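ok so i was messing around last nite and threw this chain in just to see what happens. nothing serious, just curious
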Amino acid sequence: MTITPATHPYGPHPSQIADLFVPEGEGPFPVVVLIHGGFWRTPFDRELMEPLAEDLAERGFAAWNVDYRRVGDGGGGGAWRVTLDDVAASLDQLGALSAQFPLDTDRTALLGHSAGGHLALWLSSEFQVAAAVAQAGVSNLYDAASERLGVGSPREGLGVLDVPATVEFLGGTPDEVPDRYAAASPSALLPLETPILLVHGDEDDRVPLSQSRNFAEAAREAGDEVEVAEFARTGHFEVLDPKHESWGRTLDFLERVLGRGE
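result:
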C-alpha cells in the first residue's frame, strides 16, 4: 500500500516545506524526522529520502520528510545559520501539526543522511528527542573541512566546485570562523544526551567511515549511548535503499527506542 503524503510549509521560502506521511490506522504514531543530504548544497532535496519515508509509514511510523534552504538557495556562502534555523523551524511546525494528525511527538527520532546526518545530530542538541540516527553522517565539521569533503561535488548552475563543502557552508575554515564550527559541529556539542545510531559503509567515498568511528568514540567518552553499525562492501548511497541490510538495522533501532503506533 502506498501512502500519499501531504506537503506542509513551515516558512515563506519555497524550500521551507516538508512532507508528512501518516500510516493507516488511529495512532498515535511515533514520528521519524527525515533530513536529506547533499553537502548542504542545491540541487539535492527531500526526494532522496522518499523511499525511506514510504517504508516507515507502511510500518506504522509517521514520517516528516524535510526540505530546507541550502547553499545557493537563499543564503549564499556561509549559509549555515539559515539552514540550521530552517530544520529547527520544521520541528516546531511538526509540533503544531500534532494537533491535527495522530502523531505522538513525545516519541520522535531524527534521521539524516550525509549532511542530513549532521543536521539530525545537531538538532538533537537543540531539541529533546527520543533518538538520533546518522546514515553516512558528517558528524565532525572540523575534520570534514581538513579532509576537504565535498570537493568535486556539483552544484546547480556552477558546475563542479573546488571548495570543501563545510568551508562553503560555514563561510570559512575552522581558523577563520571558529565560533561557527563550535556552534554547528556535533562533535563540539557533546554530550547530545539521546541514544544515537551511526550507520556507515566501509566503501563510502563521499564521507569516510572515520567520521562515524571517531564521533562514536568521543560521544561515548562524553557519556552518550552510541551504537555503530558498519556494513561491508557498502558505499554512500546504499543506506538509502529500504532493501539494503542497513535499513533493517536502522528499523530495529527505531522500534526499540520508539515502539510503533497503536
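not much to say yet. Strands lie at 6-9, 17-21, 29-35, 62-66, 103-113, 131-135, 154-155, 159-160, 196-201, 226-231.
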